[in-house]
C-alpha cells in the first residue's frame, strides 16, 4: 500500500500550556508517516524549550524554525505552507488534541477522490468535539452546535457565509496549496481563505465524525479574534465586520466561473452595504449564504426588519 508522507504544519506562539498534549496526539496517529513542521512566532514563554525536547527525541520527525520578528498567525501559517514540499499537508493548532485515526481517515477519503482526479485541488475537513481547558467535554459536535450543514456537493454559498471549515481539521493536497499561495495581505483567517479557494476551484470532503478535540480557552489567539468579531457585528446582521469582505476582494477573479462570481459579488455588495438591509434577506437565502436551519432563518428575517426603516420597507 502506498503510504505518502504527510507534512503537519503548526504555527506556535506562547503555547507552553497545551502544546505537549497536541504533539503527543500527533505522534500517536495510526498513520505514522509524518513530518512535523513548527514555526514559532517569537514566543516569550517556554514553547521553544518544549518543542526542542521533542526534536531531540524524534529528530527525524521534527523541523523547527523561529521567526526573527512576530508575523501573526496567518502569515506564520503562510510561511509554513510555502516551506513544505509534500503531496499532503495537515494544519494543526498548538492547543488541541487529535483523535488517533484523524490522519488515517482523512487521507483515505482524499486518496479515494484522487484516484480519478489526480490534478484536482482537494480539502478534507471534519467535525470537532469541543473541550475546555481541562479537557472536559463541552459538546460532542461543533458543527451541530453551531448549526453548520454543508452539502457533500459544491456549496459555495455556505462556505462564503457560515463556512464551518475549521483550519485545525484540514488535510489538503499540494494542488490546493499551489492555487492558494501566495496569500493576500488582507486575509484575517487562513482557514476561511483556504475553504473559499478550494470551494471555487477544487473538491471539499466533509467528514461528520469529530476527529479533533477543539480546546476552547481564553489564551487562544483565534478564539479571542472570534469573540472580538462577534462583538463588532453590525446591528445583529450576519457576517458584517468579520473580515470576509477584505478576503473576497483579494481573490483573483479572472478564472472564476460566472455563476460563482455572481454569488461572490452579491455577497460583497451585502457585506459593504449599510442601507436597505431588508432587500438583501431573500437574496441571501436564494444564494444559500446563511445557515440552513428554519429557526435561524426565521429569526434572521426579523433582524432584517428591525434594521430597516419602515419607510424603506414600504418603498420596496
Automatic annotation (TrEMBL):
Gene3D superfamilies: Spore Coat Polysaccharide Biosynthesis Protein SpsA, Chain A (3.90.550.10). Transmembrane segments: none annotated. InterPro entries: Glyco_trans_2-like, Nucleotide-diphossugar_trans. One of its GO terms (molecular function) is hexosyltransferase activity. Pfam families: Glycos_transf_2. CDD domains: GT_2_like_d. Keywords: Transferase. This is Glycosyltransferase, family 2. PANTHER family: GLYCOSYLTRANSFERASE, UDP-GLCNAC:BETAGAL BETA-1,3-N-ACETYLGLUCOSAMINYLTRANSFERASE-LIKE PROTEIN 1. Residues 8-127 form the Glycosyltransferase 2-like domain. It comes from the Bacteria.
Amino acid at each position: 500500500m502506498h503510504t505518502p508522507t504527510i507534512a503537519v504544519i503548526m504555527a506556535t506562539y506562547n503555547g507552553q500550556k497545551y502544546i505537549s498534549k497536541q504533539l503527543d496526539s500527533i505522534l500517536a496517529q495510526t498513520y505514522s508517516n509524518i513530518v512535523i513542521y513548527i514555526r514559532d512566532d517569537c514566543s516569550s514563554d517556554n514553547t521553544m524549550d518544549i518543542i526542542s525536547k521533542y526534536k531531540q527525541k524524534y529528530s527525524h520527525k521534527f523541523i523547527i524554525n523561529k521567526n526573527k520578528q512576530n508575523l501573526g498567525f496567518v502569515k506564520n501559517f503562510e510561511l509554513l505552507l510555502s516551506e513544505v514540499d509534500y503531496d499532503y499537508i495537515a494544519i494543526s493548532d498548538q492547543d488541541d488534541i487529535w483523535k488517533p485515526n484523524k490522519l488515517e481517515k482523512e487521507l483515505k477519503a482524499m486518496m479515494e477522490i484522487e484516484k480519478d482526479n489526480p490534478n484536482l485541488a482537494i480539502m478534507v475537513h471534519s467535525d470537532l468535539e469541543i473541550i475546555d481547558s481541562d479537557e472536559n467535554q463541552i459538546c460532542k459536535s461543533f458543527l451541530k452546535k453551531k448549526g453548520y450543514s454543508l452539502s457533500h456537493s459544491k456549496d459555495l454559498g455556505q462556505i462564503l457565509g457560515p463556512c464551518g471549515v475549521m483550519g485545525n481539521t484540514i488535510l489538503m493536497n499540494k494542488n490546493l496549496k499551489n492555487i492558494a499561495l501566495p496569500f493576500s495581505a488582507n486575509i484575517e483567517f487562513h482557514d476561511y481563505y483556504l475553504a473559499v479557494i478550494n470551494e471555487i476551484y477544487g473538491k471539499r470532503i466533509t467528514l461528520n465524525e469529530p476527529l479533533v478535540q477543539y480546546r476552547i480557552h481564553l489564551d487562544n489567539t483565534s478564539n479571542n479574534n472570534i469573540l472580538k468579531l462577534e462583538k463588532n457585528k453590525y446591528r445583529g446582521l450576519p457576517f458584517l465586520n468579520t473580515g470576509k469582505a477584505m478576503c473576497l476582494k483579494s481573490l483573483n477573479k479572472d478564472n472564476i466561473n460566472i455563476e460563482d462570481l455572481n454569488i461572490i459579488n452579491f455577497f460583497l455588495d451585502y457585506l459593504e452595504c449599510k442601507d436597505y438591509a431588508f432587500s438583501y434577506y431573500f437574496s441571501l437565502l436564494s444564494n444559500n449564504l446563511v445557515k440552513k436551519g428554519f429557526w435561524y432563518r426565521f429569526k434572521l428575517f426579523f433582524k432584517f426588519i428591525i434594521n430597516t426603516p419602515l419607510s424603506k420597507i414600504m418603498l420596496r
